[in-house]
Amino acid sequence: MSSYHLDHLQYLETEAIHVLREVAAEFERPAILFSGGKDSICILRLAEKAFRPSEIPMPFLNVETGHEFPELIQFRDRRAKQLGARLIVRTVDEAFAKGLAAPTPGQISRNQLQIPVLLGAIEEFRFDCCIGGARRDEEKARAKERFFSFRDAFGQWDPKNQRPEIWNLYNARLNQGENMRVFPLSNWTEMDVWEYIQREKLEVPTIYFSHTRECFRRGGQWLPVPTVHTDIIKPDPYAGARPKPNEAVKSLVVRVRTIADMISTGMIESLAESVDDIIAEVAAARVTERGTRADDKASEAAMEDRKKAGYF
Length: 312
Hints:
The chain is built from 8 helices and 10 strands. By secondary structure, the protein is of the alpha/beta class. The protein folds into 2 domains: 8-193 and 301-309, HUPs (Rossmann fold, 3-Layer(aba) Sandwich); 205-297, no CATH class. Helix 2 links the parallel strand 1 and strand 2 (60-64).
């Protein structure tokens, strides 16, 4: 009698599919947080495997800061259309116009301002669960997450008040106004993600591969010069992200390891032109992928503080 053994990626895949099916069974109005980044790309392939030949039974939700890489937005829209999915987009600029959020004087990054936009979208569409691509290996606050991350009626996360998860049993019970964030890739690593992309032959945005881009040095990393021209929009929302007179601009061959917006994403010098090249590069890396995120460098507790307030 032969036995069937799953390899490492197959085990992670079956675990994530199980989590996605649990969401479909337990929640009435779930949504997938889809940015077009590599982790959410894997979530979509897992959702296809979990629910095909039926349609993916949940819409896609994305919160834009207004500072996104154009390549990422184009990829997001095209992928959602290919899957025939409903894509819901809410923006920080719309939140400004409606009085739901206000820019903080001197604040360059808008990542913190995504919180009221996300919570507003959850309330608007009455989502009781949002599926994200966060992984425990990314950052120490995310390492505290469970697969099913409970959020209270204010959308807040308390790492000391999470539910036990024993033998793949999940407590999805919610009271009125409460919400769940679910992370099917919790046990994956950056290497697992790229090996899965390689195995499944998944398309990813071109900015993950080496390309020539104008960058400037700030805070110990290369930041991209915003490519969006705002001659008509005043004041320039990218003003704080543009190089200062003493910050020389260089044309470099770079790529991204993790994508935020153009204000927060550090570029790494790289010649990786294929997924195989990226896998080799990740294997040799001695800095975590979120070590290139300027918003995480703001303080030791930056991510945890945002998550407690309702961040992804």
